[in-house]
Records
---
Amino acid sequence: MGLRSFCRALLVLNVLYCALAAAQEGLPGWHMFESAEALDVTLADRDGPIAIANYLPKHAWLVDATELPAIAAFICRKHPERAPYTFDDRTVRAPTKRRPTPRRLVADADCRFHAAD
Amino acid sequence: MRPTRRSPLPSGRASHARSEGTIRDRLDRLERFDRASVRAFCRLFGGALLASVATELEAGVHRVHAGELYPWRHLPLLPLYPPWALVLEWSVTACVGLAFVTGRHLRIAAPVGALVTLVAVLERFSNHGALAFLVALFVALDPPDLSADDFEDRPHHGLGLVRAQLGIVYVFSAINKIVHGFGTGASLLAVARASSVPLTPGTASALSWAVIVAELGLPLVLFVRPKLGVVLVVALHTAFCAGMPGLVSFGLTMAAMAILFVRRSRGPAAPTRPTTARPA
């Protein structure tokens, strides 16, 4: 296969993948803030609310809740002396969104967050 | 006895071969580029790579690799490497960026750039990182030799992929926005709130639709009126960067790709006219 044919095949594959990523949730594609959420979340330790942004690199746009549980677990593991940790998610979401709200989570000794009783 | 008349219509096979040749010729013509445009592309893309390193340094990404900050967007395919490896990655990326800016050693810089940007994307996924990888990869497939005498006369398939990639990014970004109801303005309001930019719901919805229309229209404008298209691409991404300063690298890469549409006398849409010798 010559370079010309290879490049044209690559172009077709590229377009087909992008179409698949547009149709299938979770696949990396050209998703640019199209479903950003106005998050209303609070992570708190024994002393009160924690500024989550202080544990993220600058320009990290926290506009959806995908990585929030992992971020909360990271902070909990980093500072276990500040337990107990609670995570409140009061974000209002459209009914089509998978994650139900509101919800309150509590971290256990291994920094795994579970639904509060 | 009458001489047999030959049918004026060409045979099916000859017609098919001629039309295939014509389509291939047209596609090949789409893959011809001005030397000046490609030089500008190299400089802008090199600038984008340098800007990416500077932005990550300023954002404190090294603190992520030191374990102080959360590994934002880290894909679990490679382990998060230590800060010294990040410094090595940044150094290589900066060298590749400089090579593109100066237009030298592209045959080495492009594949090295593709490799280092791929590793970077696996360490911390981002749209600008993925785009940088794709552009470097396409250039690496067919590195342009700007000193070649016949540079403007032969097709450059790698650069053709780069130029097509701009259309792919804009069109699929717009499609994803339409599918997710971006036009309601809710997403833009959320982003504005995160950026501390005041925005009303009505303005957010109007701006959201403006972005969608721009993303769908820009590839067409670039094809038909390339210089105007470049100006609009720069304006669009300048507006994005004003609200979200971390997007400088992405904007520079898109501007670099847009400039490939510019040809001295005409854009890629204009047909080339065959020269015909006039009878004496």
---
Amino acid sequence: MRILVVEDEPDLLQGLAQALREEGYAVDGTDDGEEGLFKAINSDYDAVVLDVQLPGLTGWEVLAQLRQARRTPVLMLTARDTVRDRIRGLDGGADDYLTKPFDLEELLARLRALIRRNSGQASSRIEIGGVLIDTTTRQVYRGGEPIGLTAREYAVVEFLALRRGTLITRTMLYEHLLDEQESTLSNVFDVHISNIRKKLGTDFISTRRGHGYCIE
Amino acid sequence: MKAFHQSIRWRIQAWYGLLLLVVLAGFGAAAWWLARDNQLAHVDTDLRLRMTSLGSAIFSRGFSSMSRKSSSSSRFTKESDTTSPQELRRSPGQRYWFGEQEGGYYYVVWTSAGEVRYRSTNAPADIPYPDAVTAGSRSQTRQRDQWRERYFIPSRGYTSLVGVNLEAQLAAGRKMAWQLIFAGGGILALGLGFGWWLSGRALKPIGEISAAARHIAGDRPAERINLTHGCRELVELSAVLNETFDRLQGAVTRQMSFTADASHELRTPVAVVLTQIQAALKRPRAPEEYRDTLHICERAIQRMRDLIESLLLLARQDSPDATPRREPCQLQVIVDEAVTLFGIRAAERQARIVQQIEPVEFTADARQIVQVITNLLSNAIDYSPPAATIQVAGGREGANVVLTVTDTGPGIAAEDLPHIFERFYRADKSRTAAHGHNGLGLAITRGIVQAHGGTIEVTSRLGEGTRFTVRLPAGAARNATDEPAPEPVVMVAA
């Protein structure tokens, strides 16, 4: 999953970005509202963490303009905590609203919920055949046994599982599982997919030659 | 019952009622007295007339009384005349002046020895002999209970007295008095009633003002008293109260937004620290990572500390007894101190500070003025590109000390200029210029300058740099080249 963090306080931006990366997300960050809007419209992020008080374009304006183009889930961060501001945020198209200072764990949980909801999943545990994916602990079990996946492999599994039934092209994999600073080697994901098949079974992921991958 | 004697309305009513009572009573009493005097005057005139006619009757009889022995009129008894008072025979015309039917006038005539000689039939018994008359006249009027009598005591001859029973008049007078009292009472009651209604109407707006003020102080602070008609004093009062409410609301709003801004400002560094620490604790880390986290936390906490100190300063400025200390200062010394405090930052940014300070002495709080200069230098250095030149100039201007800090940095946009002294206002609106700038520096600076009775101005144009000008009243300042001020003379009681 790829997240965009728009936050003008540099220490907070850095801290958040790093924490999210350690959670297995691909993270892009910016401290400017206009740049954030540009990025959010031009890439398909799985979620956007958006600060309200930004230089240039405010968080409200970014949200309004983003909503005209995309349905990306948005979690707003703010130092304003009046009910009126929450209502404004939620009615304005935000999917969730957290006030600073926030608990890091709560932020991570809410992001997971946002992404899960966006994929149409009700539960944080996904069962496919004999494979169980627990998105909160980022653990995968096969036949009850925990399977060791690398962070990248897990990211691929989670991404495909949340879009179960959809054809996932390589481009989408690049777009959603790498942040903008990572170089794209054209077959890095092929390697991951093959490793996943080794660990979870060959029919776990189907290949559509010339198009992409899919979990049925 | 509420202490009604403390109500304006009751008091007005009481005084007004008292006044009305006094006026009515005075008027009534005067009217009654006048009527009585008038009546008595009439009676006295009648008494005088009758006295005259009695006198002429006596006179015409007088000689005949001396010759009564020679008369055989049946009117006279054989006994001495002095033992049985007789009616005076009068001429038919005179008879009608005495008697019950003519108003009850009677007469008595005494001899000079004090024995009753003549009396009218309707004269009351036991009329006492009159006292001697006062000097200067021989006839006098006296009032004896309900009888009013006029008598005449000649130097020689008979004493005559004419009188009348005033009972009827007295009764009429009493009746009139009661009528006046009742009428007056009625008018008083009417007057009081009208006064009550009138004062109620005049004071009704006060009740409205009270109610409105209670609302405003309670749950509707934006409302105002709506009183545009009515008596001028209350309309003025409403206007003054509304103005006061405006000012209070302004102060409260400023206070609330200040508190809100302050807490916002604090939330961000707290969020930084919390996120850093929580992220760091999620898994084991290398010491360098912990060190990084701790540095970042330290930075954030220093920001919080600076913010807290600035807020306390501002709060102290806001308090009413924030008068600065007054001590003699030398401008050059103060500027040097500020520049020294700034040495490290200036060196970091390779900034040059050029001074042009005239020797000026003035009275102010030295520490605070140093802070003013450091604030201005800080702004100049941080918002200028590296290796910039900053000019600090100062001197005397009339009764003021003038200080300017000029930089050649990017300048301030015109729309920001009126706001830069506001609390938490940041012209660049980006917290990335976080050299410890929390938007309060200029607010504090202005507060200090104003507390000293001075002014601070800024001129700037985008791309051309910025100049801050501070003017302070020099107090007892004089140039160092002037002769020293005379020593204050201390009088010591011998």
---
Amino acid sequence: MTTVESEATTTLQKGFVGQNVPRREDKRLLQGEGLYFDDVKRHGMGYVHFLRSPYAHARITSIDVTAALEQPGVYGTLTGDEVAILTDPFFQIAAEPGGNVRDYALAVGKVRYLGEPVVAVVADTRERARDAAELVEVDYEPLDVVVDARKALEHGAPVLHEECGGNVSYSGVWEWGDVDKAFAEADHVVKISELHFDRFNSTPLENNGALVEYNRGTGQWTITTNNQFPGFAAIMMAPALRVGTDKLRLVTQDIGGAFGNKITTHPQLVACCLLARKLKRAVQWTEWRTEFHQSMSHCNERWFLDTEVAVMADGTMTAFRSKALDDTGAYLRYEPLGGVIWSQVAAGMYGWRNLRLEFTQVMTNKAPCSPNRGYSRMQHLWFTERIIDIIAHELGFDRVELRKRNYVQPEQMPYETPNGCVYDSGDYPKALDVVLDLIGYDTVEERRKEVASRGKLLGFGIGSTLDSGTNNFGQSQLVNPELQFSGNNEVATVKLDFFGEIVVTLGTTPQGQSHETAASQVVADILGCDVDNVQVRAGHDSYWNSHAGFSGTYASQFAVTGLGAVKGATEELASQMKTLTSMVFQCSADDIELVDGFARMKGNPEAALPFMALGAIPNMNNAGFPIDPPPMNARYVYRPPFDVPDKERKFGNLTLTYAMQIHACVVEVDPETGVYEIVDYVAVDDCGVRVNPRIVEGQVMGATALAIGAAMFEVFAYDDDGNLLTPNFYDYHVPHTLDMPPLKTGAIETPSPFTPLGTKGMGEGGGGGIHCVNAALQDALQASPGRAIVTTSHNPYHRVWEMLNHPERFREKVEVISK
Amino acid sequence: MAATPTSSQVVTVTVNGTAYEREVPARRLLVHFLRDDLDLTGTHIGCDTGSCGACTVYLDGVAVKSCAVLAVQADGAQVATVEGLSDDELTPLQQSFSDHHALQCGYCTPGMLMSAAALLAENPSPSEEEVKVGLQGNICRCTGYWNIVEAVVAAGKGSA
């Protein structure tokens, strides 16, 4: 079913890094002893239920909580009017016009999407909180609704945020090279009038929530939650609550998946903070599945309009120009960073040097968007893969050869893209060859005939993609030059405890990415001990002072930032251990090595100190040293090497590493119904040095499954009134076991020259599955009359039926002009 | 049977061999009873439509979704949850999950284990297809299921 073929080129360290060390997270999770936020209780805590808007767009004319407050067991309520007095609006990343959005913890004056929280009710049981919320009377004056981003731009469209003067949050022109010249010289111009990346998200199985406590004596809140980016949450929440960031203690242990969808919960967390303070008791909020679908973190829905591609006679793509229209839903929060983050992969995997994208982001009466696995790069990489696939079919090029011709080549690495990003390493043609071998590419045409004899259409597709990791937050200045964010960081501490136990803390917030295991492997290799002797504290806690402004787990960076911090702290500790040992043995620190759990003199293994001795000395037994014995305690902040990008030219290195995945699949389409299934699937990844190959493979598999879901089954569909038609798992089909195709995986390793361990972050993946399933579908349709092209990322069977029966609706979107 | 409707009731539920007597609102879901009243938080909630299987427990030996059962329906019954699968050492099925990297965030895992253990009790050496059919009611967002299916098949072949 799955095979792993590894073509590892180098591993930088011997020992535990590079091995499939068993996961230390597993035992507690398998025994049901994980600690997720909803598992934590406080005596007397109140349960929060949010009353949410039934309208996609309306003025709130009155709110009456009297009846709710009279119910037995109800502790209190919170409305937008109170929020507007007690807090300041959340900081906006956008410059004008988007920067004028006023975003609060609850709706203030208006609701702008169905499901927007309006009133919070707190009671002694979950059931009573829900019942009481039904007694709250809210009067609304419905307003016209806009759910189509193209209509949101029109003069006279309903405006969500009057302060913005319209629905645009951000717009900018991104252009590099000489686009006009490239088009003038092109042998072919391929025009695609419309492509649409559909709205979905990763629906982590655990929803959002928090247990919030307020210490009245110190003014400190303790927030036990599953927010995956505590640095961002604190930066957003503290100014709103008018307190310093240290008054917000953010605690996580186990998180039930996140995939980016647990970054923008700060509005609900602020509501809970206000309630905990107001009601003088701990409050507990657990989001329901339907609430999550209606209100949380949809992926950026993006149109690519009026695309034109310049192609030479031999298939070399030299330029594209397009208009990206990004539909970000009703509020911004993490946006409009999506307006710049795509440019980390502006060129995709291809070598073209002349690119132009007019990027406009609009707000609509739908759930607010925020990062979703592959955030903003996935949409753009899908765009480049649709382009190359459509070009191949329209101009008659072989899709493998066309990719190889246009790929950035391994000898060009490290490669500077037209906008100054640096692809650190990679061998795309080699990875593609591994894919073709694993899927049996040379048998595809034979299989096509066999499938046709059964009355079906076979399709073969490739989806190649990048996973850019370790952001330079300086790119935020490319959407708003006034911002004061740049660079990136992560923090770790490593110490020898009183009796020599090795204890590690991280600033990250893992949601299944095995940070405890991976960190222990790095530490064990440096300290020369067994991986089981390394204790890594589970989760995140701001009290540990092991975090900085960018701490969290997002954007494919742990293997670089988190492990970079661990490596730095451990090397510092190792140096302290050698120094202390040299003080005891009265020799040079250079004479000491750390081997088998001892600090010992090179060439004289009898002269050795166990870690227990080293831990005890500074902690309990530190007299008699002429200078201070080192404390056996190290804190390290990993900072990737970045400059602030050039805002004029929108040029500079925006991300440190570029992992890569190439996916391929074979589909069989029933031409009568449009129903199709994936019958074979291959995914090959390259994330540089793999600290734990099986964990890497697990991430690749997870990304594959999410992408298959997005391509075939999952979409957030809205009607014209702004009602979400797929508000929970009844209608939003998350793939299950029977939906998964047979899978083979493979890997190559091209180490990154830029990172402490040669690793590259890789957790997101880049949506390769969406690209290849779309490509396979289009390939199958080449055999159908009309030869429809695939123009949307999500293609359920009824869309395929439409492509089979009304291909003109799709073909009219593509035009080829040749010299 | 009560002559007048009541909004709460005292129930006695035996969970993992221990009997608990509690007063519960009539509308309380079994999953909330287990998690909130009995502090058995290993059983998880992933949806609100009975679709995801994260809440799977055994009710008198039958695998059920505890979000679709009322606590009062479990009055007098034997319930088994993930906490009851093992004492300190992992069972062969649990070990197989770890060996095959069949869990990442762990949130679906208790439900997966309960469904898989029920399957194996009925069919000790299932094929890959039988495992997929048996687990189709359990959603996972992290793993893509391939390693989970492998783990259950391997646990099946290994069992006596």
